[in-house]
Amino acid sequence: MKGFLLAGCAAVALVGLCGPAAADTTPGKFDIKIGGDAYFTVGAVAQSYERNTRSTEFTNRFRLQVTPKAQADNGIEYGANLRVRAWNADGRLDADQAYIFVGGNFGRIEGGVTPGPNNQYGVTAPSGFGTGGVVGDWSEGPGVNTWLNNQATFLEPIVGGGYNNITNTNWSSKLNYFTPRFFGQSGGPDDAPSGLMGMLSFAPSNLSINTDVTRTRSMTALAPAQSECGSFDSSGPVMGCRYDNVWEVGARYDGTFGGFSLSGSAGFIQGGARSTGIAATRTNYNDLQAVQFGGQVGYAGFLVGGSYLNAGNSGYAKTRGLFLTDQSAITAGISYETGPVVVGFNYAHGEDAGDVTVPGTRAANLYSIGATYTLAPGFTTSLEYLLSNTKNERGYGADPLGNGLQNSGNANLFLWKNAITF
Fold first, then answer.
1. What is the residue-wise DSSP string for 36-78?
2. Tell me, what CATH number does 303's domain have?
Protein backbone atom coordinates (compact mmCIF):
# COMPACT_ATOMS: atom_id res chain seq x y z
CA MET A 1 0.00 0.00 0.00
CA LYS A 2 1.40 3.30 -1.05
CA GLY A 3 1.11 7.01 -0.46
CA PHE A 4 0.95 9.33 2.51
CA LEU A 5 -1.86 11.78 3.15
CA LEU A 6 0.28 14.86 3.88
CA ALA A 7 -2.19 17.64 3.17
CA GLY A 8 -5.93 17.78 3.62
CA CYS A 9 -8.04 15.18 5.39
CA ALA A 10 -11.17 14.68 3.32
CA ALA A 11 -10.54 10.99 2.66
CA VAL A 12 -9.49 10.30 6.23
CA ALA A 13 -12.61 11.97 7.56
CA LEU A 14 -14.62 9.09 6.08
CA VAL A 15 -13.29 6.87 8.85
CA GLY A 16 -13.38 9.52 11.56
CA LEU A 17 -9.65 10.28 11.63
CA CYS A 18 -9.68 13.88 10.39
CA GLY A 19 -7.99 16.39 12.67
CA PRO A 20 -5.61 19.34 12.67
CA ALA A 21 -2.59 17.11 13.45
CA ALA A 22 -3.21 14.73 10.55
CA ALA A 23 -0.92 16.65 8.15
CA ASP A 24 1.74 17.57 10.72
CA THR A 25 4.91 15.65 9.83
CA THR A 26 7.29 17.23 12.35
CA PRO A 27 9.15 14.78 14.63
CA GLY A 28 6.84 13.16 17.17
CA LYS A 29 3.71 13.80 15.14
CA PHE A 30 1.70 11.28 13.16
CA ASP A 31 1.84 10.69 9.45
CA ILE A 32 -1.21 8.90 8.11
CA LYS A 33 -0.72 6.24 5.50
CA ILE A 34 -3.87 5.32 3.63
CA GLY A 35 -4.39 2.56 1.09
CA GLY A 36 -6.54 -0.40 0.26
CA ASP A 37 -7.87 -2.54 -2.52
CA ALA A 38 -11.10 -3.26 -4.37
CA TYR A 39 -12.20 -5.94 -6.79
CA PHE A 40 -15.08 -7.09 -8.96
CA THR A 41 -15.36 -10.77 -9.91
CA VAL A 42 -17.45 -12.66 -12.45
CA GLY A 43 -17.86 -16.36 -11.75
CA ALA A 44 -19.42 -19.48 -13.26
CA VAL A 45 -19.84 -22.87 -11.56
CA ALA A 46 -20.80 -26.38 -12.63
CA GLN A 47 -20.87 -29.07 -9.96
CA SER A 48 -22.37 -32.34 -8.76
CA TYR A 49 -25.63 -32.52 -6.79
CA GLU A 50 -26.60 -28.96 -7.63
CA ARG A 51 -30.27 -28.04 -7.44
CA ASN A 52 -32.16 -24.77 -7.60
CA THR A 53 -29.02 -22.67 -8.11
CA ARG A 54 -27.66 -20.28 -10.73
CA SER A 55 -24.42 -21.11 -12.49
CA THR A 56 -23.25 -17.47 -12.61
CA GLU A 57 -22.72 -14.78 -9.97
CA PHE A 58 -20.92 -11.46 -9.34
CA THR A 59 -18.98 -10.57 -6.19
CA ASN A 60 -17.14 -7.48 -5.01
CA ARG A 61 -15.19 -6.22 -2.02
CA PHE A 62 -13.64 -2.89 -0.97
CA ARG A 63 -11.06 -2.58 1.82
CA LEU A 64 -9.68 0.66 3.25
CA GLN A 65 -6.57 0.53 5.44
CA VAL A 66 -5.52 3.50 7.57
CA THR A 67 -2.21 3.56 9.48
CA PRO A 68 -1.33 6.56 11.66
CA LYS A 69 2.37 6.27 12.46
CA ALA A 70 5.00 8.35 14.28
CA GLN A 71 8.65 8.06 15.26
CA ALA A 72 10.12 9.11 18.59
CA ASP A 73 13.46 10.90 18.97
CA ASN A 74 15.06 7.59 20.07
CA GLY A 75 14.03 5.93 16.79
CA ILE A 76 11.12 3.88 18.13
CA GLU A 77 8.22 3.73 15.68
CA TYR A 78 4.65 3.49 16.98
CA GLY A 79 1.13 3.76 15.67
CA ALA A 80 -2.07 1.90 14.89
CA ASN A 81 -3.69 0.08 12.00
CA LEU A 82 -7.34 -0.20 10.93
CA ARG A 83 -8.70 -2.13 7.96
CA VAL A 84 -12.39 -1.59 7.15
CA ARG A 85 -14.18 -3.90 4.71
CA ALA A 86 -17.32 -3.54 2.60
CA TRP A 87 -17.96 -7.17 1.67
CA ASN A 88 -20.80 -8.57 3.81
CA ALA A 89 -23.87 -9.86 1.98
CA ASP A 90 -26.16 -7.66 4.13
CA GLY A 91 -24.24 -4.48 3.32
CA ARG A 92 -22.69 -4.02 6.77
CA LEU A 93 -19.14 -2.74 7.18
CA ASP A 94 -16.73 -4.58 9.43
CA ALA A 95 -13.06 -4.41 10.35
CA ASP A 96 -10.76 -7.41 10.32
CA GLN A 97 -7.73 -5.49 11.60
CA ALA A 98 -7.68 -3.00 14.48
CA TYR A 99 -4.49 -2.90 16.52
CA ILE A 100 -1.70 -0.73 17.88
CA PHE A 101 2.01 -1.42 17.32
CA VAL A 102 5.46 -0.35 18.42
CA GLY A 103 8.73 -1.26 16.75
CA GLY A 104 12.45 -0.66 16.93
CA ASN A 105 15.75 -2.47 17.29
CA PHE A 106 14.02 -4.88 19.66
CA GLY A 107 11.54 -6.02 16.98
CA ARG A 108 7.84 -5.28 16.66
CA ILE A 109 4.89 -5.73 19.03
CA GLU A 110 1.23 -5.73 17.91
CA GLY A 111 -1.78 -5.64 20.24
CA GLY A 112 -5.41 -5.93 19.10
CA VAL A 113 -7.40 -7.63 16.37
CA THR A 114 -4.71 -8.88 14.02
CA PRO A 115 -3.83 -12.12 12.20
CA GLY A 116 -1.60 -14.59 14.00
CA PRO A 117 2.08 -14.88 13.04
CA ASN A 118 1.71 -17.97 10.87
CA ASN A 119 -1.24 -16.42 9.06
CA GLN A 120 0.85 -13.34 8.30
CA TYR A 121 4.12 -15.02 7.41
CA GLY A 122 3.40 -18.71 6.81
CA VAL A 123 4.67 -19.93 3.42
CA THR A 124 2.39 -22.00 1.19
CA ALA A 125 2.31 -22.92 -2.51
CA PRO A 126 2.84 -19.96 -4.89
CA SER A 127 -0.40 -17.96 -5.07
CA GLY A 128 0.43 -14.74 -6.93
CA PHE A 129 -1.71 -15.61 -9.96
CA GLY A 130 -5.45 -15.65 -10.63
CA THR A 131 -7.35 -15.10 -7.39
CA GLY A 132 -4.68 -17.00 -5.44
CA GLY A 133 -5.42 -20.53 -6.61
CA VAL A 134 -6.08 -23.02 -3.82
CA VAL A 135 -5.59 -20.23 -1.25
CA GLY A 136 -7.69 -17.80 -3.29
CA ASP A 137 -11.34 -16.83 -3.63
CA TRP A 138 -12.96 -20.25 -4.14
CA SER A 139 -14.30 -20.21 -0.55
CA GLU A 140 -15.65 -16.66 -0.82
CA GLY A 141 -19.04 -16.11 0.79
CA PRO A 142 -20.62 -16.70 4.22
CA GLY A 143 -21.97 -20.11 5.26
CA VAL A 144 -23.19 -22.24 2.39
CA ASN A 145 -23.48 -19.22 0.07
CA THR A 146 -20.16 -19.72 -1.65
CA TRP A 147 -18.89 -20.39 -5.15
CA LEU A 148 -18.84 -24.11 -4.33
CA ASN A 149 -22.34 -23.96 -2.95
CA ASN A 150 -23.37 -27.46 -1.93
CA GLN A 151 -19.80 -28.41 -1.03
CA ALA A 152 -19.17 -25.43 1.22
CA THR A 153 -19.46 -27.05 4.65
CA PHE A 154 -17.68 -30.09 3.26
CA LEU A 155 -14.60 -28.23 2.04
CA GLU A 156 -14.19 -25.21 4.30
CA PRO A 157 -13.45 -27.08 7.57
CA ILE A 158 -10.83 -29.20 5.82
CA VAL A 159 -8.78 -26.77 3.77
CA GLY A 160 -10.35 -23.38 4.48
CA GLY A 161 -9.31 -20.30 2.59
CA GLY A 162 -5.68 -20.44 3.74
CA TYR A 163 -3.62 -23.43 4.68
CA ASN A 164 -1.53 -21.67 7.31
CA ASN A 165 -4.67 -20.48 9.11
CA ILE A 166 -4.65 -23.11 11.85
CA THR A 167 -7.58 -21.87 13.92
CA ASN A 168 -10.96 -21.16 12.39
CA THR A 169 -10.97 -17.53 13.57
CA ASN A 170 -7.41 -16.28 13.34
CA TRP A 171 -8.26 -12.57 13.65
CA SER A 172 -8.80 -12.57 17.42
CA SER A 173 -7.61 -9.99 19.93
CA LYS A 174 -4.02 -10.99 20.66
CA LEU A 175 -0.48 -9.91 21.36
CA ASN A 176 2.09 -10.61 18.63
CA TYR A 177 5.84 -10.24 18.90
CA PHE A 178 8.26 -10.40 15.96
CA THR A 179 12.01 -10.40 16.55
CA PRO A 180 14.40 -8.36 14.42
CA ARG A 181 15.77 -10.15 11.36
CA PHE A 182 18.99 -12.07 12.00
CA PHE A 183 21.55 -13.14 9.37
CA GLY A 184 20.06 -10.64 6.92
CA GLN A 185 21.64 -9.70 3.61
CA SER A 186 22.51 -6.12 2.71
CA GLY A 187 21.87 -4.50 -0.62
CA GLY A 188 18.37 -5.90 -1.13
CA PRO A 189 15.26 -3.81 -1.82
CA ASP A 190 13.59 -2.23 1.19
CA ASP A 191 10.32 -4.07 0.56
CA ALA A 192 12.02 -7.49 0.53
CA PRO A 193 13.35 -8.16 4.06
CA SER A 194 15.88 -10.93 4.45
CA GLY A 195 17.14 -13.06 7.29
CA LEU A 196 15.58 -15.11 10.08
CA MET A 197 12.68 -13.77 12.16
CA GLY A 198 11.16 -15.36 15.26
CA MET A 199 7.44 -15.02 16.05
CA LEU A 200 5.40 -15.35 19.25
CA SER A 201 1.69 -14.76 19.93
CA PHE A 202 -0.86 -15.12 22.73
CA ALA A 203 -4.67 -14.82 22.70
CA PRO A 204 -6.92 -15.45 25.74
CA SER A 205 -9.58 -16.80 23.35
CA ASN A 206 -9.44 -17.40 19.61
CA LEU A 207 -13.06 -16.22 19.16
CA SER A 208 -12.91 -12.99 21.17
CA ILE A 209 -12.39 -9.60 19.50
CA ASN A 210 -12.46 -5.90 20.34
CA THR A 211 -14.27 -5.15 23.63
CA ASP A 212 -15.70 -8.65 24.02
CA VAL A 213 -15.02 -10.13 27.48
CA THR A 214 -15.55 -13.92 27.50
CA ARG A 215 -14.04 -15.48 30.63
CA THR A 216 -16.28 -18.52 31.08
CA ARG A 217 -14.31 -21.79 31.06
CA SER A 218 -17.21 -24.06 30.03
CA MET A 219 -20.43 -23.53 28.11
CA THR A 220 -23.85 -25.15 28.22
CA ALA A 221 -24.70 -26.63 24.85
CA LEU A 222 -27.87 -25.26 23.26
CA ALA A 223 -28.73 -28.64 21.77
CA PRO A 224 -27.04 -32.03 21.46
CA ALA A 225 -25.70 -31.12 18.01
CA GLN A 226 -24.39 -27.70 19.06
CA SER A 227 -21.39 -26.93 21.22
CA GLU A 228 -18.37 -24.72 21.62
CA CYS A 229 -16.61 -27.13 19.26
CA GLY A 230 -19.15 -26.94 16.49
CA SER A 231 -21.73 -29.52 15.51
CA PHE A 232 -20.84 -32.82 13.99
CA ASP A 233 -23.61 -33.34 11.49
CA SER A 234 -24.88 -31.58 8.37
CA SER A 235 -25.60 -28.39 10.31
CA GLY A 236 -21.96 -27.51 10.87
CA PRO A 237 -18.27 -28.40 10.60
CA VAL A 238 -16.01 -30.55 12.73
CA MET A 239 -13.77 -27.54 13.33
CA GLY A 240 -14.96 -24.41 15.06
CA CYS A 241 -13.88 -24.83 18.69
CA ARG A 242 -13.47 -21.97 21.08
CA TYR A 243 -9.98 -22.37 22.50
CA ASP A 244 -8.59 -20.66 25.60
CA ASN A 245 -5.04 -19.40 26.20
CA VAL A 246 -3.86 -19.86 22.64
CA TRP A 247 -0.08 -19.71 22.19
CA GLU A 248 1.60 -19.57 18.80
CA VAL A 249 5.30 -19.69 17.97
CA GLY A 250 7.03 -19.69 14.62
CA ALA A 251 9.92 -18.61 12.44
CA ARG A 252 10.31 -17.15 8.93
CA TYR A 253 13.42 -17.01 6.75
CA ASP A 254 14.03 -15.17 3.46
CA GLY A 255 17.28 -14.99 1.50
CA THR A 256 18.94 -15.01 -1.92
CA PHE A 257 21.84 -17.17 -3.06
CA GLY A 258 23.44 -16.91 -6.50
CA GLY A 259 20.25 -15.81 -8.24
CA PHE A 260 18.01 -18.17 -6.24
CA SER A 261 15.49 -16.87 -3.70
CA LEU A 262 14.55 -18.95 -0.69
CA SER A 263 11.65 -18.53 1.76
CA GLY A 264 10.58 -20.86 4.53
CA SER A 265 8.40 -20.90 7.63
CA ALA A 266 7.48 -23.17 10.52
CA GLY A 267 4.91 -22.73 13.25
CA PHE A 268 3.26 -24.42 16.23
CA ILE A 269 0.06 -23.46 17.99
CA GLN A 270 -1.67 -24.80 21.09
CA GLY A 271 -4.74 -23.92 23.14
CA GLY A 272 -7.17 -25.38 25.65
CA ALA A 273 -10.56 -26.69 24.48
CA ARG A 274 -13.67 -26.06 26.54
CA SER A 275 -16.18 -28.59 27.80
CA THR A 276 -19.92 -28.28 27.21
CA GLY A 277 -23.12 -29.28 28.93
CA ILE A 278 -24.00 -29.82 32.58
CA ALA A 279 -21.91 -32.13 34.75
CA ALA A 280 -24.07 -35.20 34.10
CA THR A 281 -23.84 -34.88 30.31
CA ARG A 282 -20.64 -32.94 29.87
CA THR A 283 -18.65 -33.42 26.68
CA ASN A 284 -14.91 -32.87 26.68
CA TYR A 285 -12.87 -32.02 23.60
CA ASN A 286 -9.24 -32.43 22.63
CA ASP A 287 -7.03 -29.39 23.04
CA LEU A 288 -5.68 -27.50 20.05
CA GLN A 289 -2.25 -28.64 18.91
CA ALA A 290 -1.14 -28.02 15.34
CA VAL A 291 2.02 -27.63 13.28
CA GLN A 292 2.55 -25.90 9.94
CA PHE A 293 5.59 -25.50 7.72
CA GLY A 294 6.27 -24.53 4.13
CA GLY A 295 8.90 -23.35 1.70
CA GLN A 296 9.45 -21.70 -1.70
CA VAL A 297 12.38 -21.51 -4.11
CA GLY A 298 12.55 -18.96 -6.91
CA TYR A 299 14.81 -18.56 -9.95
CA ALA A 300 14.59 -16.56 -13.21
CA GLY A 301 10.89 -15.77 -12.76
CA PHE A 302 9.92 -19.28 -11.62
CA LEU A 303 8.63 -19.96 -8.10
CA VAL A 304 8.11 -23.47 -6.71
CA GLY A 305 6.85 -24.36 -3.25
CA GLY A 306 4.37 -25.97 -0.92
CA SER A 307 3.26 -26.45 2.67
CA TYR A 308 1.99 -28.97 5.21
CA LEU A 309 -0.40 -28.49 8.13
CA ASN A 310 -1.51 -31.05 10.73
CA ALA A 311 -3.95 -30.29 13.52
CA GLY A 312 -4.32 -33.91 14.69
CA ASN A 313 -7.52 -34.48 16.64
CA SER A 314 -7.80 -30.88 17.85
CA GLY A 315 -11.41 -30.10 18.73
CA TYR A 316 -12.66 -33.67 18.36
CA ALA A 317 -14.80 -35.04 21.17
CA LYS A 318 -12.90 -37.30 23.56
CA THR A 319 -14.41 -40.74 23.02
CA ARG A 320 -12.66 -43.81 24.42
CA GLY A 321 -11.61 -46.32 21.79
CA LEU A 322 -12.56 -44.09 18.84
CA PHE A 323 -9.67 -43.48 16.43
CA LEU A 324 -10.34 -40.65 14.03
CA THR A 325 -8.54 -39.28 10.99
CA ASP A 326 -6.19 -36.38 11.70
CA GLN A 327 -7.02 -32.98 10.26
CA SER A 328 -4.32 -32.20 7.71
CA ALA A 329 -3.69 -30.26 4.52
CA ILE A 330 -0.89 -30.03 1.96
CA THR A 331 -0.25 -27.60 -0.90
CA ALA A 332 2.15 -27.65 -3.84
CA GLY A 333 2.54 -25.48 -6.91
CA ILE A 334 4.56 -23.49 -9.40
CA SER A 335 4.27 -20.02 -10.94
CA TYR A 336 6.15 -18.02 -13.56
CA GLU A 337 6.37 -14.24 -13.87
CA THR A 338 7.54 -12.34 -16.94
CA GLY A 339 6.92 -8.63 -17.34
CA PRO A 340 3.29 -7.83 -16.49
CA VAL A 341 2.15 -11.50 -16.65
CA VAL A 342 2.08 -14.14 -13.90
CA VAL A 343 0.84 -17.68 -14.62
CA GLY A 344 0.67 -20.62 -12.25
CA PHE A 345 -0.70 -23.96 -11.16
CA ASN A 346 -1.19 -25.33 -7.66
CA TYR A 347 -2.76 -28.26 -5.86
CA ALA A 348 -4.10 -28.91 -2.38
CA HIS A 349 -5.27 -31.98 -0.50
CA GLY A 350 -7.09 -31.83 2.84
CA GLU A 351 -8.79 -34.41 5.02
CA ASP A 352 -10.43 -34.89 8.41
CA ALA A 353 -12.72 -37.33 10.20
CA GLY A 354 -16.02 -35.92 9.02
CA ASP A 355 -18.41 -37.49 11.50
CA VAL A 356 -16.47 -37.72 14.78
CA THR A 357 -18.73 -40.53 16.03
CA VAL A 358 -17.97 -42.91 13.13
CA PRO A 359 -14.50 -44.00 11.95
CA GLY A 360 -13.85 -42.81 8.42
CA THR A 361 -12.32 -40.06 6.34
CA ARG A 362 -13.56 -37.25 4.17
CA ALA A 363 -11.12 -35.59 1.82
CA ALA A 364 -10.94 -32.77 -0.69
CA ASN A 365 -8.59 -32.27 -3.64
CA LEU A 366 -8.29 -28.87 -5.30
CA TYR A 367 -6.52 -28.14 -8.60
CA SER A 368 -6.13 -24.55 -9.81
CA ILE A 369 -4.62 -22.89 -12.87
CA GLY A 370 -4.66 -19.17 -13.53
CA ALA A 371 -3.03 -16.03 -14.88
CA THR A 372 -2.80 -12.37 -13.86
CA TYR A 373 -2.01 -9.45 -16.15
CA THR A 374 -1.06 -5.99 -14.87
CA LEU A 375 -2.93 -3.49 -17.03
CA ALA A 376 -1.48 -0.45 -15.25
CA PRO A 377 0.21 0.23 -11.90
CA GLY A 378 -2.23 -1.01 -9.25
CA PHE A 379 -4.72 -2.38 -11.82
CA THR A 380 -4.80 -6.12 -12.60
CA THR A 381 -7.11 -8.57 -14.35
CA SER A 382 -7.03 -12.31 -13.62
CA LEU A 383 -8.49 -15.55 -14.94
CA GLU A 384 -8.66 -18.74 -12.90
CA TYR A 385 -10.03 -22.26 -13.20
CA LEU A 386 -10.41 -24.50 -10.15
CA LEU A 387 -11.44 -28.16 -10.00
CA SER A 388 -12.71 -29.51 -6.69
CA ASN A 389 -13.02 -33.22 -5.97
CA THR A 390 -14.50 -34.37 -2.65
CA LYS A 391 -14.78 -37.86 -1.16
CA ASN A 392 -16.78 -38.92 1.86
CA GLU A 393 -16.10 -42.43 3.20
CA ARG A 394 -18.66 -42.55 5.99
CA GLY A 395 -21.84 -40.64 6.72
CA TYR A 396 -20.92 -37.10 7.64
CA GLY A 397 -24.59 -36.37 8.27
CA ALA A 398 -27.46 -36.39 5.81
CA ASP A 399 -28.37 -33.25 3.89
CA PRO A 400 -31.84 -32.18 5.16
CA LEU A 401 -32.55 -30.29 1.91
CA GLY A 402 -31.73 -33.23 -0.33
CA ASN A 403 -29.07 -31.33 -2.28
CA GLY A 404 -26.31 -33.87 -1.73
CA LEU A 405 -24.51 -31.49 0.62
CA GLN A 406 -22.18 -34.10 2.06
CA ASN A 407 -21.88 -36.40 -0.95
CA SER A 408 -18.71 -37.00 -2.87
CA GLY A 409 -18.52 -35.11 -6.13
CA ASN A 410 -16.80 -32.66 -8.45
CA ALA A 411 -17.08 -28.93 -9.00
CA ASN A 412 -15.72 -26.71 -11.78
CA LEU A 413 -15.23 -23.02 -11.01
CA PHE A 414 -14.26 -20.24 -13.43
CA LEU A 415 -13.39 -16.78 -12.07
CA TRP A 416 -12.57 -13.49 -13.82
CA LYS A 417 -11.32 -10.95 -11.29
CA ASN A 418 -10.47 -7.27 -11.79
CA ALA A 419 -8.68 -5.58 -8.91
CA ILE A 420 -7.45 -2.11 -7.93
CA THR A 421 -4.73 -1.77 -5.28
CA PHE A 422 -3.78 1.66 -3.96
1. EEEEEEEEEEEETT--S--SEEEEEEEEEEEEEEEE-TTS-EE
2. 2.40.160.10
